[in-house]
Write a structure and sequence with these properties.
By secondary structure, this protein is mainly alpha-helical. The protein has helices spanning about 1-45, 55-90, 95-130.
């Protein structure tokens, strides 16, 4: 009976890991689609608005990168969850080591991606701020 319970837990963890990996793929696909839509809106949307606005390619690129980066970050979180689920039932020390290494790499990727996303957010915020420099005339 204990062996069947152990098998059930192992299979459950593998199914959970597979589901989490699938969600990760869906996040990447959704990120790709929404990013392509946003890129099109940023590039050509000004032609279809009643009051066209100035096109700033750097600001548009920052918005597009921020959008895709957020989706990639979410996908990495699900991948890390899948690694943790796999680690709980890893049959050997070698498998545990490989999964731990994957988890560390994905965590570092997520940290650096988060830093880059924060820089993009700051760039967008600064681009939206009106210039506060006043020229003084003598």
């Amino acid at each position: 009976m204990l062996e069947s319970l152990e098998d059930l837990i192992i299979h459950g963890a593998r199914i959970l890991a597979l589901i989490l990996e699938g969600i990760s793929v869906v996040c990447i696909l959704a990120g790709l689609l929404t990013t392509l839509q946003l890129a099109a809106q940023q590039r050509w949307g000004r032609y279809f608005r009643k009051q066209p606005t100035a096109y700033d390619p750097e600001l548009s690129l920052a918005k597009v990168r921020l959008n895709f980066g957020l989706w990639l970050s979410l996908a990495l979180e699900f991948q890390l969850g899948a690694d943790i689920a796999n680690t709980t039932v890893a049959p050997s020390l070698d498998a545990l080591g490989k999964l731990a290494l994957l988890a560390v790499v994905r965590t570092f990727l997520n940290v650096f991606l988060a830093r880059e996303l924060e820089a993009e957010k700051t760039a967008i915020h600064l681009a939206r701020q009106p210039s506060s420099t006043l020229e003084l005339s003598s």
